[in-house]
Amino acid sequence: MSDTAAGPVSKRVFIDKQSPKAYHALTETAEAVRAVAADAGLDRTLVELINLRVSQVNGCAYCLDVHTRAALRAGETTQRLGVLAAWRDTELFTARERAALALAEAATEPANAAVQESAYAAAHQALTDDEISAVIWVAITINAFNRVSIMSKHPVRLIPHQ
To answer: What's the whole-number average pLDDT of the chain?
Structure first.
């Protein structure tokens, strides 16, 4: 155990490596959710925006790193990625994207019933039932991966300029 400004740091277990069967089941779930999202008509950039926003809310550095690169590969802009944490304060996101982001946030912090109702109301205005289901499944899945990475303290490695 070593110390940091935040206090003692204990050795972390990479639970994905320690329990590979459980992690494999989670990755299979993620594959199924990707297919559900595609079948519902959610494009890859919207899925990555959801992954990123949930990872921002949860403070998962590893998932933020992975999904920022994935969003850029999918064609997302650096401007929109740069303001994603404050998406409500810009006009850069469509009504559909805004509804999906609000619903993903509600799925990430589900204790507030009023926020859930508001998010669902907005979602029903902009999304189909299939899209609503897919957005919630994407949020649930990235929440699970966030917890795996946060509890394992997966490192973010510096990538030289590309």
So the answer is: 95
